[in-house]
Write a structure and sequence with these properties.
Layout (H helix, E strand, L loop, with lengths): L1 H27 L6 E5 L2 E7 L1 H16 L2 H16 L14 E8 L2 E9 L10 E3 L2 E6 L3 H13 L2 E5 L6 E7 L2 E11 L2 E7 L4 E4 L8 E6 L14 H4 L2 E16 L3 E14 L5 H11 L4 E4 L2 E4 L2 E9 L2 E5 L5 E4 L3 E5 L7 E2 L5 H4 L3 H11 L1 E9 L3 H5 L1 H4 L6 E8 L5 H16 L5
Helix pairs in contact: 1-2, 3-11, 8-11
């Protein structure tokens, strides 16, 4: 009798795994959406291949890792999503390819969520066109309705999805592809690549220490949720920035009290002439702590930093003397991300931080990264394979690869930290 029960149990388990594998395989099939109509005013498109992303994540989650932390995070996200009544539910089939479209309309940047329309979409605030649903995000209903009428009456063009790319950000100029940022997720690697363009100024990190470095150029209209709209006063003026971070210290001073003292250097590149007084005014309007100036120093709360104008549109704030360099990379990343969650001298208080889900997820993610690698390659196949041309080839494609430690999975680690942040901020009530 026991032998028969065990045999039946084995058969049932086998059937369950076959059904789960079939479900994963069905998701892994290519999306039926191969292209999407976009308004002629489009200047950027974030394209999401949800089947490519979620089939691999689900396969890793179901068959390889059985990650308990992932199960907890997914459960919390689903509960928050199911109970959330403040956000609009869109009549879009998110199991198919969908996108966020960036437009410049009446000298204003707007974002539109677009995807394959599902039945009964007439009761929603957006509009349908050729089987696709479009909805302007981060605008009140009255303003969105006015802008949508303009979009409907304008010209449109067709933009194709690449079935091999899980996530891309395309820059569009006059309905043509100007540049694209291609993201890929492998078992132990998160990578993206793009064409390098103009030269920009960056801060050189101190390579003798543990550091994390990011430099990037910005294009206006980067999406910010409405609750963070006050940051526009800074982001709308920025052309780019360069940032080095070396960790933080917990200060317990009998006179000045207790505070966190982060060690960082940041270089702000503005799109127009900007004085030190203008920057400090901007920082006071967006900072959550006290900002004050004393001679060549700026105090953010009680942490003190050097303040220096490099030229009429470049300003430095930091702990160290800036060492500058030029780069053609539109985006660069180097160093060890674990320093982002490093706070020295914290003692037993560090245990309290572990109770904060966002800190814990970011720490787990950063500590799972083994290395960050950057290199340039040539877009032309002739340069790659023709020895006579290799010396004259201009390397213009930038590649950044984030490699994870053995035993860590890039897809699961990335997905878990994104879901945790969504739990913290998407459903947060103002």
């Amino acid at each position: 009798m026991k032998v028969a029960q065990r045999f039946i149990a084995i058969i049932l388990i086998f059937i369950i795994w076959i059904l789960a594998f079939s479900y994963v395989h069905s998701i892994h099939r290519q999306s039926t959406v191969s292209a999407i109509p976009c308004p002629e005013k489009t200047i950027g498109i974030v394209k999401i291949n949800s089947r490519e992303i979620f089939s691999k994540i689900l396969f890793d989650y179901s068959f390889r890792n059985k990650d308990a932390k992932m199960m907890k995070t997914v459960s919390e996200y689903y509960q928050n999503w199911a109970q959330d009544t403040s956000s609009t539910k869109y009549p879009i089939d998110f199991s198919e390819n969908f996108c966020l479209i960036k437009l410049k309309l009446n000298q204003e940047i707007i974002w539109v969520l677009a995807g394959k329309s599902i039945a009964n979409s007439a009761s929603f605030s957006g509009f349908s066109r050729q089987g696709f649903y479009y909805s302007i995000v981060s605008k009140d209903k009255k303003e969105a309705a006015r802008l949508q009428q303009q979009l409907k009456g304008g010209a449109w063009f067709l933009s194709e999805f690449n079935p091999n790319n899980s996530l891309t950000y395309e820059l569009i100029d006059n309905k043509r592809l100007k540049n694209e940022y291609v993201f890929s997720l492998k078992a132990r690697e998160l990578a993206f690549s793009f064409k390098a363009r103009k030269t920009t100024t960056m801060i050189v990190p101190d390579s003798t220490r543990s550091f994390f470095h990011i430099s990037t150029r910005l294009n206006h209209g980067s999406f910010l949720p409405e609750k963070y709209a006050d940051l526009d006063v800074l982001t709308d003026k920025l052309a780019g920035f360069s940032f080095n971070y070396y960790g933080a210290k917990y200060i317990d001073d009998s006179k000045r009290g207790t505070y966190i003292d982060p060690e960082f250097d940041v270089l702000f590149n503005f799109s127009q002439k900007t004085k030190l007084a203008e920057l400090t005014k901007i920082l006071r309007s967006v900072a959550r702590e006290d900002v004050r100036i004393e001679s060549d120093w700026i105090y953010l709360n009680r942490a003190r930093y050097r303040l220096k104008a490099i030229n009429d549109s470049t300003i430095f704030i930091g702990k160290n003397n800036p060492k500058l360099s030029q780069t053609k990379a539109a985006y660069s990343m180097r160093g060890k991300p674990h320093v982002l969650t490093e706070i020295k001298n914290l003692g037993w208080k560090g245990g309290l931080l572990e109770l904060i889900p966002e800190y814990r997820a970011l720490k787990d993610f950063s500590e799972s990264v083994e290395s960050i690698q950057m290199h340039m390659s040539c877009e032309s196949n002739a340069c790659k394979y023709d020895v006579s041309k290799q010396n004259t080839c201009q390397k213009n494609v930038q590649h950044i690869r984030i490699k994870f430690k053995p035993g860590s999975n890039a897809r699961l680690e990335s997905f878990r930290v994104l879901l945790t942040m969504a739990n913290a901020y998407q459903f947060q009530q103002d």
